[in-house]
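One example copied in:
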Amino acid sequence: MFIPLGFLSIFFIFPLINIILRGLGDNGLLDLLPFKQIISETYYLERIWFTFWQASISTILTLIIGLPVAFVFARYEFPCKELLKSLTTLPFVMPTIVVAIGFGALLGPNGLLNQVMMTVFDLKQSIINFQNTLVIIFAAHVFYNYSIVVRIVSNNWSNLDPNLEGSAKMLGAGRLRVFWYIELPLLLPSIISAALLSFIFAFSSFGVILILGGPQFATLEVTIYELTTKLFRLPLAAALCLIQISVSYLFLFLYARLQDKTHTILNFKPYHSTLRYPVTKLEKVFVILTLIMVLLILSPLVALVGKSVYVREGFSIVNFVNLFTNPNDSYFYLSPMVIIWNSIRFGVITIVISLIIGTMSAIFLGGKGKRTGLLDSLLMLPLGASAVVLGYGFLISFNRSPIDLRASWVLLVIAHSLIAYPFVIRSILPVLQSINPGLREAASVLGASEFMKIVKIDLPIISRAMLVGATFAFAVSIGEFGASMLLTRPEMTTMPISIYQSLSQPGDENIGKAMAMAVLLMMVIGTSFVAIEKIRYKGIGSF
């Protein structure tokens, strides 16, 4: 456990302490003036309140959308189920900048929906524009987080004994009473866990707010970014970062404690033993409507693909061709192949680092009689921290001899690994907890050491979960945006940075290039996750 804690201490806690000392301290003395300024200025109080408020509403909407989908996947069998379940994962692993562009392509003033409406009804101008509104922010957060609810709740729902429902119905209970009095109490820990994670991700949202929200809807994360990179008001940025981390840690601690109540014993029973085909008309209609809702949620990604190949002259691949052209002979031009290669190689290195740190952490946490929620939530803390401030912390912490990494890609990979390894833990730990204790007891009787138990029992069983964790680590790295904004140098440009750079330049051609690169990024990530349902244990784990 020394290696994971050492990694966390050097590359997370140390930069954070440096930010606090530089931003809130003067000659080693704590200066509370930034906190007083936050309390006294309405603007910052409004930003804090809006961050809480939008995250709460987003979480509620996510539960409303996600719970019916979780029930359908947990209780019913139907054609193409595994493919559809894989598709529900895509929104969660999509980079926020891709999600933002997708919603702009669907609901923006020049979006696909407006184009269809103008064509069908012969309109002269667009009538729908959700850009820079709360509607599109909530929609993007639901799109991004509902798969968390589906994954966590459906996995636990599928492990509930269906005989409970049968026995209750024999006693005269209807479907709603069964759910309310039997299933809901058993599912409540997993529902709350999903809600906590959804809240954290909405609370620390950056790319969605930055691109879709506008200045009037700035969250804490966006405010920290503005204060750090544009206004250079580091004390205020550090103070807001501390507030954000404190809130995130509280919710992560609660999440870690709840995870103790949601794991199940892995007895290798047929997964389909708890599934059945919908029989009644009501069941069939419910399943069909739920699946239609899943497909509608994916519509921003479809709109993104459509807009990337549709120009004024009609369908064309000109946007993709433009990626490979340098019309102004710019010295700073990078080929898309170089950019894609940068993203892939950083992703592979991130897999190695996060898999080592995450697997060691999971084995330690899963090997204890009862997991320590304090330690678990501490290891998960990078998920709730400001990636922007973390990137700035790296720059001021590793900028002098003997550790000067400002010009190195190492800082970028380490930042990606910090954000990625909690997903590895969450992929592996539930499987470790679900191993039948009888296997280890039998090995002890045969004289096996603790090391041999790990090698002969744990590692073979968790190998598939490690592949899932590696896939998540790769997706996190290739799509990371916040920290990369500060740490990426021109020659190390990644796909999300390239997309944002194109969006920041005027002209339809640049917007088209951004969409084309976003489609390529989506294809790289999507290809990885289509195979996840083939390798993960069904009904086990958060992701």
User: Anything to note?
Assistant: The domain at 2-535 is CATH 1.10.3720.10 (MetI-like fold). The CA atoms of residues 350 and 414 lie 7 Å apart. The longest strand covers residues 25-26. The radius of gyration is 24 Å.
